[in-house]
Design goal:
Helices cover about 45% and strands about 20% of the residues. The chain has about 270 residues and is α/β, with parallel strands linked by helices. It has a 7-stranded mixed sheet with strand order 3-2-1-4-5-7-6, sandwiched between helices. Helix 2 packs across helix 3 and helix 7 packs antiparallel against helix 8.
């Protein structure tokens, strides 16, 4: 009884902390909407990799967009019905809609302030946003061809419920395109969880090198943004949130104590 109560308190505190961060960020960036994506980013390592062409207004978020390009580009999205669970500030969903041309792109996020931001910031045919819980998605069965989930799942209280919901809303043969980080000792369990939930693992890649390269290349911009936008008392908190050089999360990705994973998962036909 005491252990269950302690776990409920821990989860409640985690939700309060995350909600406070997102609501503060949405309030802070309400006017010019400069911060469109919040993931750690991705940078191709191969010198022969073609440079992704972006719109001028997307350039400041290049590395975070490149993670979406890498993850979402694993399957053909043209003409498909796509759902992003944990869409945040919507920049990734907007890029996917423009670049990959799905029939519809729906972004879902738990926080009302994020959904309000997205609905105010984007006006694209086929792109929409609504509030929803990853563990209880507000859609009927077999609704989507692809579900996208990027750097969000580590915050979920009941990850098995999320897997079950994704399988429920995916059409037979549909894909979950997933990217997130876990401590190194948790990675084998993550793969096992996908398989036990009922997914077929099509691809399983570790992309620490690419994520670290993106963090290095984007470090100066993010530091400048934090100093210019945030009061000093909040700068350390958001430096950790952004995984700036020298923070614990950055060093763990660098050492390999944390593995950043990309999975391509398929619902059996």
């Amino acid at each position: 009884m005491r252990r269950r109560l302690s776990e409920r308190i821990r989860l409640a505190l985690k939700h309060m902390m995350v909600k406070a961060q997102y609501e503060y960020l949405n309030k802070l960036d309400k006017e010019d909407k400069q911060i469109r994506l919040l993931n750690y980013g991705y940078e191709p390592i191969s010198p022969d990799a073609p440079r992704l062409e972006l719109l001028p207004e997307e350039e400041s978020n290049r590395y975070a967009i490149q993670l979406y390009h890498y993850v979402a580009g694993a399957v053909d999205l043209a003409g498909k019905d796509v759902l992003e669970v944990g869409c945040g500030r919507g920049g990734g969903a907007a890029f996917v809609m423009r670049h990959f041309r799905p029939r519809i792109m729906v972004g879902v996020d738990l926080w009302r302030s994020s959904v309000n931001f997205c609905n105010d910031a984007y006006d694209m045919e086929g792109l929409s946003f609504r509030r929803g819980n990853a563990e209880s998605l507000p859609f009927p069965e077999d609704r989507f061809d692809v579900v996208l989930n990027i750097e969000s799942s580590h915050l979920y209280d009941h990850i098995e419920a999320f897997y079950a919901e994704v399988l429920r809303v995916l059409r037979p043969g549909g894909h979950l395109l997933f990217a997130d980080f876990r401590t190194k000792d948790r990675v084998p369990q993550l793969t096992k969880e996908f398989e036990e939930a009922g997914f077929e693992v099509v691809r399983n890649d570790t992309i620490n090198e690419n994520v670290l390269a993106a963090l290095d290349l984007d470090d100066e911009r993010k530091r400048k943004l934090i100093v210019e936008r945030l009061p000093q008392r909040r700068q350390e908190q958001f430096s950790v949130f952004a995984a700036l050089k020298g923070t614990h999360i950055y060093e763990c990705i660098k050492s390999g104590d944390i593995e950043y994973k990309r999975y391509v998962l398929r619902k059996p036909a």
